[in-house]
Amino acid sequence: MADLTLKTAAGKDSGTIELSDEVFGIQPNVPLMHQVVTAQLAARRSGTQSTKTRSDVSGGGRKPYAQKGTGNARQGSIRAPHFVGGGVALGPKPRKYDQKTPKKMVKAALRSALSDRAAEGKIVVVDSWGFEAPKTKDAKVALDALGITGTALVVVGRDDAAAALSFRNLPKVQIIGPGELNAYDVLCNEWIVFTKDVLPAGTSTSAPAEPAAEVAKAKKPAAKAKKPVAATESAAAAEGSASDEAGVSADQESAAPTSGEAETGKTS
């Protein structure tokens, strides 16, 4: 990470701060920035332009003159595009100019723009503005003390209302929130001024900690394997059929007469 001198609102050094290489230290991708900026400017277009075709212009409900015999070309309406006061042929109609830009491309373009300004030494980080009340004069004095000349993009936090109200009347200063930072506004301004609490930071590359529930689950001994339901049901069915067969055979044996009983029956 690159080190940058941390400044106070009075322009004095207040230590050093590290800039994330993922945000301020990459190689700027110029074609990507061009594509994202073009899409952003296209999204600003209202697209409400509209012209009247020959069916929208009033008048011309009848044929101006006869089809033949006049020596002129045949005409069906005086509101055709080639007549004065007629409709417009192939004119613009309301449409949307929005372009679908992936979020990853938008973020990458912003990182490229910030890296370009950081390479030029146009990034300034202030400890805090410390304005007690909104005052444009104090904001101008602070920018002069920091050595900022030309256009500047000041990133102001949501809670710092005094700073936002102080900078908003300066003609060469643009105020923006940390969540609204974009590549177009960064490239339109020479200087980018952050406070320490709104400075963008890169994403952490360390592995996330395992949840406690997953750790407890991993330490828990494996449960005893259960028999499949289908196998248990088939075994029970087999035992039931075997017992039924045994009962039927026993009944048959009890019902069958012995040899002595059979002979007694015959003699009687």
Shape, per Cα inertia axes? elongated
The percent range for strand residues is 5-15%
What order do the strands of the largest sheet run in, or round the barrel if closed? Answer: 3-6-4-5
Helix content: 25-40%
Taking pLDDT < 50 over at least 5 consecutive residues as the criterion, the unreliable ranges are 203-212, 227-232, 248-256, 258-268
> Would you give the CATH topology of the domain at 2-45 and 96-198?
Ribosomal Protein L4, Chain: A
Number of strands: 6
CATH class of the domain at 2-45 and 96-198: Alpha Beta
Q: How would you portray this structure in words?
A:
The termini are far apart. Helix 2 packs across helix 3 (about 105-120) and helix 4 packs across helix 5. About 40% of the residues lie in helices and about 10% in strands. The protein is an alpha/beta fold and about 270 residues long. It contains 9 helices and 6 strands. Strands 3-6-4-5 form a 4-stranded parallel sheet. It has a domain at about 1-45 and about 95-200: 3-Layer(aba) Sandwich (Ribosomal Protein L4, Chain: A), CATH 3.40.1370.10.
Summary?
With 268 residues, the chain is an alpha/beta fold.
What labels would you give this structure?
268 residues; alpha/beta; Ribosomal Protein L4, Chain: A; 4-stranded parallel β-sheet; two-stranded antiparallel sheet; 9 helices; elongated; disordered C terminus
List the helices and strands and how they pair.
Elements: E1 2-7, E2 13-19, H1 21-24, H2 30-44, H3 103-119, E3 123-126, H4 136-145, E4 152-155, H5 161-167, E5 173-176, H6 183-188, E6 191-195, H7 212-219, H8 229-255, H9 259-267
Parallel strand pairs: 3-6, 4-5, 4-6
Antiparallel strand pairs: 1-2
Helix pairs in contact: 2-3, 4-5
